[in-house]
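The freezer alarm interrupted the setup, so I double-checked each line after restarting. Inputs confirmed:
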Amino acid sequence: MIKFQDLSIKLKLISIQLFTTLFILVFFVGIYLFSQYHQYETRAFTRMSTLADILGSNSISALLFFDNDAATDVLESLETQTDVLNAAVYDHNGDVFARYDRNSNSVFDFGTMVSEVQLARDNHFVLTKAVLFDNLKVGWIALRLDASNRRTELIESVWESFLLFIAGIILAGLLSLRMQRPISDSIGILAETARQVKESGDYSVRVKLSSRDEIGMLVGSFNDMLEKIRNHEQHLEQLVAERTVELEAAKTKAEESDHLKSAFLASMSHELRTPLNSIIGFTGILLQGMAGPLTDEQIKQLSMVKGSASHLLELINDILDISKIESGRVQVYDESFKIDLLLVMAVSSLRPFAEKKGLRLRHNIESGLPKLFTDKRRLEQVLINLINNAIKFTETGEIIVNCYYKEDKLSIDVIDTGIGISEKDLDTVFETFRQIDTGLDRVKEGSGLGLAISKKLVELLGGTIRVVSEPGVGSTFSVVLPFQTEISPNED
Ligand code: ADP
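Predicted 3D structure, all chains:
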């Protein structure tokens, strides 16, 4: 059912007016019918009283001279009053002196005459009145009137009222239809304009209405608001245009900088890596004694030169890697290969370093894994970095590499029993140049870029990397990759 508050303003106004009219009509018609009903009774008794007075004064001489016939004649005059059913003249002792009954078979007993009475029954009214002569009571007049007309008259009044009622409602409806228009039309125009503005987004539209009432004020405020929104919009468009120009300039500048950076990195790659490779190569030749025998001290010094150069080369390679990844210039070359072979090779190549520290390095690879289709070189780089870190940050115990298939994905866990990572550092280990302060003298080599590079590479391969660790117990680095085994024609 539709609620009142959901009706349109027009219908609300019409219904308010109709209900008010209805209420007023019901109220006044009710009062009218009630008074009609009671006035009938008052009128009837006034008439009966007058009749009794006339009959009384005409019967005085009959009563004084005990002339029953004369009194009967007086009562006979009631023949013309068709609604008088019974009448009687009583003497001063209250005995019947003369009587008149319209129908001889409906004789009515008025009872004893003690005092004047007026009785209203459903179908008839009874009135008794004393007959006075020189202020002396000489007898009584009693009348009984047919009141069955009262109901008929009431029904007629109800019908008349009902017709008036209907006429009133129709008139009120027509009037309210006409009178609500100035209000509902104005609000309708306002609502329609608001709808248009919402749909078209055109804030130049204005509501053309002028009145001094609240609706006029509403229209004025609405137009003002549209004006303000339009101004804001224009201002915003101008700002966007200005910022776009600025952004374009900044973008061009950034592209130039990127270009310069690439050029710098390329030259650094060549200018730094070439001499470093020479240093490493030549110190290697010297250390092998190919240029003549060396003293122990010379071997020690040259080994330090070679170690530092190798570390520097590693650092430069890492910086080049991360800048290439960040500028999106790293290409992924997917190929189909056996992951167990890759893992066995990576673990075998690093086992000597683990054993040198007295650590056990082993692997658990689920049997029957299908071939993997991804960038083998990049995955190998990530795994070597993780195993390297595990060896670097473990003093006793062992390192295990687990590889298994789970929920359509390939998981590789590198688990160590090393120093672990505190909870507060877990979030930052994958950030660039992060090296956690363990509180001990930093003896581990590294650039703080290994994990950042690993994370970006894994993401580039469509996978994820995460770490679970407990200080003093160990860490588990997990790489999860989508298991792509088939080469689709597009990817080839
Ligand atoms: P780094 O070249 O210093 O190893 P990484 O990005 O590889 O740089 O690692 C960042 C830091 O995360 C390390 O300096 C070390 O503090 C911490 N870390 C990495 N791997 C481990 C591990 N297996 N156990 C404990 N700490 C680790």
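Quick read of the result. The chain has ten helices and twelve strands.
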